[in-house]
Write a structure and sequence with these properties.
Order of helices and strands: EHHHEEEHEHEEHHEHEHEHHEEHEHE
Number of strands: 14
Strand content: 15-25%
Largest sheet: 7 strands, mixed
Pfam families: Acetyltransf_1 (PF00583), NTP_transf_6 (PF06042)
Distance between the termini: 42 Å
Number of domains: 2
InterPro entries: Acyl_CoA_acyltransferase, GNAT_dom, NTP_transf_6
Low-confidence stretches: 164-169
Structural class: alpha+beta
Strand order of the largest sheet: 1-2-3-4-5-7-6
Protein name: N-acetyltransferase domain-containing protein
Length: 363
């Protein structure tokens, strides 16, 4: 059936109604959820409910309801700080193209934006509805053994914790595990990670765009390699700042990465200051390390480096943390770039990933 178009989550607007009322489901799916024709009016009249449209290229492709307040206690007794996802579905005519997966990936950021007080997303799924169960668990929901009895039989209560306590030191660990899990599922990146060891014994990282875009693609349900134009491979050799030495490694990399369709750009960060002003008009002090170079990269999400060593251990450098990355937020890192460059980069990225939230320069 082909790949889905651009998927987004939007609050219900009247222009979607005719499309939503035409939604259909086969009998085996209708047993487990309700159509918008059955739920929309009640949702619109309830201040504790938000009606949400899953849009594909601006057209209604799916629907669900976000329900807060004490009326969800029958589903989840610890309802304070929680939101219940209800009546989730994708129109039968649009199924089979990853729309539901993309919508679930966008859900956490959507809830954070529209229901900032919510700390947990909860949903129930009939134990017999195996496809839906796999979808929700794959989106990061967890089954902690909670059960309820619904009109159609036993239901699992699945939970998604939006935020760990601020003083919880494991928050970044959780995000790093998610990050390396996504990297591990990318055939392209894993091949690059393994071949990048050609730069040893110099310190090195794979950095910035290809890493970030791989994460965005998984979070938005796109192909893992979508939008990746090149792969930045950086190393640090302060003892030889000649172009000849760098060019030798570039040639070596060209041979090593010859089977990879996406260009691999190898640069010695110790010599960036020698050409940066001529190219960008900004005088740059020599970097003292690879990490110092990454510290100056243009956004909080793209200031990211990763490598996988020969022992299978991940090394991640993310000086601004990973929250913005997983929340699809672009925020400027003003160490080096101008507002014009920031706007240019973010506009280019948002054309490919419209789900991204662009924070203003004066944030």
């Amino acid at each position: 059936m082909g790949e889905a178009g651009q998927i987004s989550l939007v609050l219900y607007e009247e222009n979607f109604k005719e499309q939503l009322m035409a939604f259909q489901l086969p009998t085996e799916q209708a047993e487990f959820t309700a159509l918008p024709s059955e739920t929309l009016d009640a949702a619109l009249s309830d201040p504790d409910k938000l009606a949400v449209v899953i849009a594909e290229d601006g057209q209604a492709a799916g629907f669900f309801i976000l329900h807060t307040g004490n009326h969800i206690a029958e589903f989840y007794k610890d309802y304070q700080g929680a939101v219940l996802v209800r009546a989730f579905l994708v129109d039968y005519a649009r199924q089979g193209r990853g729309i539901a997966k993309a919508a679930m990936a966008l859900l956490p950021a959507f809830v954070r934006t529209h229901l900032p007080a919510v700390q947990e997303i909860v949903l129930t799924v009939n134990e017999r509805n195996l496809p839906a169960g796999h979808l929700y668990l794959g989106a990061g929901f967890r089954d902690h053994g909670l059960r309820r009895t619904g009109s159609k039989g036993p239901q699992k209560v699945l939970q998604y914790e939006l935020s760990l306590p601020q003083d919880n030191p494991d928050e970044e660990t959780v995000l790093r595990e998610r990050l390396t899990g996504i990297f591990s599922r990318s055939v392209l990146l894993m091949e690059v990670f393994h071949k990048a060891r050609l730069l040893e014994p110099f310190p090195y990282y794979i950095g910035a765009g290809c890493l970030v875009q791989t994460v965005w693609n998984e979070l938005t349900g796109r192909d893992p390699d979508y939008g990746i134009g090149d792969i930045d491979l950086i190393y640090f050799d302060p003892d030889d700042l000649s172009f000849a030495a760098e060019d030798h490694l570039i040639a070596k990399g060209r041979e090593c990465f010859s089977g990879i369709a996406i260009p691999v750009d190898i640069k010695n960060q110790a010599r960036v200051h020698l050409w940066y002003e001529d190219k960008f008009g900004v005088r740059l002090q020599p970097y003292s390390s690879l990490e110092a170079a990454i510290d100056s990269w243009p956004t909080t999400v793209t200031a990211l480096g990763a490598r996988l060593d020969g022992n299978g251990e991940w090394h991640i450098y993310a000086p601004f943390g990973l929250k913005d990355l997983f929340n699809l937020i672009l925020r400027p890192n003003k160490v080096l770039i101008s507002e014009q460059i920031y706007r240019s980069k973010t506009m280019k990225w948002q054309k490919k990933w419209p789900e991204l939230q662009i924070m203003p320069w004066e944030d």
